[in-house]
Structures are given as C-alpha cells and as structure tokens.
Amino acid sequence: MDSAILNDLLELVNNAIPGNRLFLGRTTENTFTIIHTIDKEQTGIELHNNQTVDLNETYCQQIFSNQQKPVIINDALENSLTKELAVTSEQNIRSYVGGVPVFYKDGDMYGTLCAINPNKDNFSYQTVELLKKFSRLFSYVIELERQATIDKLTNTYNRNYLFDHFYGWGGKYGILMAIDLDGFKQVNDTYGHSVGGDQVLLESTNRIKHIIRKGDALIRLGGDEFILILPHADQQEIRGIAERILASLGNWSEYTLPITLSASLGIVQYTDEALTTLLNVADQALYQAKEKGKSNYVVVNED
Length: 303
Prior knowledge:
Elements: H1 3-16, E1 21-27, E2 31-38, E3 51-54, H2 61-65, E4 71-73, H3 86-90, E5 95-103, E6 109-117, H4 125-149, E7 157-158, H5 159-169, E8 174-182, H6 184-191, H7 193-211, E9 217-222, E10 225-231, H8 235-249, E11 262-270, H9 275-291, E12 296-300
Parallel strand pairs: 7-9, 11-12
Antiparallel strand pairs: 1-2, 1-6, 2-3, 4-5, 5-6, 8-10, 8-11, 9-10
Helix pairs in contact: 1-4, 6-7, 7-8
C-alpha cells in the first residue's frame, strides 16, 4: 500500500489513542517486518519503515503463542516472554498491544496493527476494540488498492504491484525468479484461450502457490511469464524450491487435457540492485535455461 495512505490511516488511529508509537507489521515464518510506523508524540521508541527483524526477537512471538489473537502486555519487564528480549531494555518498551489483524476480503491476512508505549499499564481491552474498528477501515482501503494490483485471471499480483511495492516487501536480500512456461503457445493453439490457455495458467499458478513459502510473492507479468520474489531466501533453499516447481510444472499426466508443458527458470540473488536490472539479469538467465533444454534453471550470482 502507498506509504502516504498508510501514514494517514495510522494518524487516524493516533487521534483515537494518542501518545504511542503505532505500526502495521507483517510476519513470515521467521521474521517480522514493520510495514509502516508513526510516533507523533515522540515516545523515544525507535522503529523504521520496512525494518525486518527475527520473529523470536519481537513481541509478536506472543501472538503465535496466543493463537494469533490480540495480545496486551501490561508490563514488558514482568512478562516471561518479553522481559529477556533486548528490544525491551534497548527501546524502553513497557506496554504493548498488538496482533489485531488486517484482512483482505478473501480472508488472507495483510498484517497486524500494533501499539507500544514506554509506560506500563497503558492499554486496555477498550484499546483492542478501537484497533479492531480501525483494522476494518484498513482492510477496506487495502482491498481497494489490491483490486488495482491483482491479475484477475490468476489472482496473483500484476506488474503494477511489482514495481510499486518491491522495495517495500522484497526485503534487504533475497531471490528473484523468472518463470516461463514452455509449450504454452501450443496449448493455446490447440484448445483456445478460455478452455486451454486460461485454465492452464490458473492451474500453473495454483501449483506454484502450493510450493512457495508464506511471504513469497508471485507476479504475472503477462502471457505465460511470471516473476517470483522470495525475500530472505538463500541459494541452498532456492534450489529445492526451483526443482519442485520444475517437477510440478512438468507433470501433466493427470490433467483434464492431454497436454505437454514444462517450465524454464532464471534465478538471481538480490541485495540492493535496481528492480529493472534484476529483471534483465533474470531474463537472460531464463533464456540460458531454455537453451539447456526443457525443465531447467540457471542461477546467477552464485557463490
């Protein structure tokens, strides 16, 4: 979501519960990322937009131990899970309320709404109820933006989303993978777009979604070309994911139509490179994979 819009929404929350550092965060299996944060009253607690930390070093681990329900911590120095965390003493955090979910219309979670304060006993269940009301407003606005950034056929992200948001959720390092379906034109020519091509694209994206991790992003650039962003992934795990994708997209023996299809992958590691540069490099690797034959991948920037 656009940073200015997030800022405006968090300022509305601040007007209702002033004096706190507020933030919208997102968890993966092992990390927590601050999507956007504000501190209008200067609490002295330092957080930064797009900051990513180990989940075990955050208060958000409490959310998981509490079955992903909203959590109130009245005194972080007395709570068994937070008193030993470095962030408690380093940032002088005493009270916390968080884990209030912000959902998309289809039930997927966008993130969680949270507040922290340097004073203990600062939050109550009335605070949680207020945050729940604001979370519904966040959900409405986020869903409007999502409709403009989603590929309607495959329900994956589109090119606009990739270019608008990559630097926000791509993380400081990770893997960018270009995916191209080999044999797709023949499927279209044989069965037509609606019966053949569209259904094959939908099936292909569903197969990829079942393989990738929570927090990864699949983008359809157009036609049968896709980009997969895997934040914080390294080469050891990416090879396993790539091989599983190739195996899944190369086996259509039980599909409803008799088709022959496979995939080629171009993979590049990223740190602080420009997105256009990464796309060009991944595209070159993709064509190198095609030259090797069906169901192949090429990794650039290998150690």
